[in-house]
Amino acid sequence: MQSAEYWQSLFEGWPAGFPTQGILITSFQEAIPFTGFMISEGMIVLDRDKPDSSGARKVILAYDVIAALKITSTFELDRFQELGFRTTQQF
């Protein structure tokens, strides 16, 4: 599976009660803070609470330009099991 497929799978399986705020890092080294998102086949649209330097509040990206995702909410690491993560003891 390619990186873009992993990102798409992660966002498609986002649990309803899991926080939707974070910072998406692109392969262009751009950090995009967001407060919500919507998905489609091959792309994601991010909603910002403040406009960027161009005045844009929404950004549409292909999954293949996502390099990292930072979660800004504070909660226990175990909560990431809702996104499909597991401890090494569960392999």
Characteristics:
single chain; 91 residues; mainly beta; SH3 type barrels; 3-stranded antiparallel beta sheet; 6 strands
- State mean pLDDT (0 to 100 scale): 93
Strand order within the widest beta sheet? 2-1-6
SSE ordering: HEEEEEE
How many helical stretches?
Answer: 1
CATH topology-level fold name? SH3 type barrels
Major sheet characteristics: 3 strands, antiparallel
Measure the end-to-end span: 19 Å
Net shape: globular
CATH class: Mainly Beta
State which percent range the strand residues make up: 25-35%
Describe the structure.
The protein has one helix spanning 3-12, and strands spanning 22-26, 31-34, 36-40, 43-47, 58-62, 66-71. The longest helix has 10 residues, at 3-12. It has 91 residues and is mainly β. It is built from one helix and six strands; from the N terminus they run αββββββ.
Brief account:
This protein has one helix and six strands. By secondary structure, the protein is mainly β.
Tell me the layout of helices and strands:
Blueprint lengths: L2 H10 L9 E5 L4 E4 L1 E5 L2 E5 L10 E5 L3 E6 L20
Antiparallel strand pairs: 1-2, 1-6, 3-4, 4-5
